[in-house]
């Protein structure tokens, strides 16, 4: 078991390493970007990277506090499902109206990776090679699809 301090330091070390690794990558628009805190420009719509002691996932997370608005946003993503899949070159899981780890209602479009731990440094290359191409593909998708979400700004 790790102490709270060790957990915090290991997580910080991983995310710092990942941030340094991906920092030279320009966005689809050719701009420098903060990949870890990616800004979609739409409140309650985030690209989320998550890793813990057993698994990881990358997600498009919809967290609008109004369930009806969250549903509308999720439906809009369904309209773009084929486009999104063509950018990602793989199928992702789609879950509407689930409760997250903070007991908040969210909807997620995500890709999980099992059997990895952010606390094992030997897993970091797997995590980085899992996150990086998918995050870049999400950025490329968002560059082209974001005008279709203007009504949610």
TrEMBL record:
Any single Pfam family the record assigns to this protein: DUF4268
Record domain DUF4268: where: 10-143
Listed InterPro entries: DUF4268 (IPR025364)
Top-level taxon in the UniProt lineage: Bacteria
Protein name per its UniProtKB record: DUF4268 domain-containing protein
Organism, scientific name: Pedobacter cryoconitis
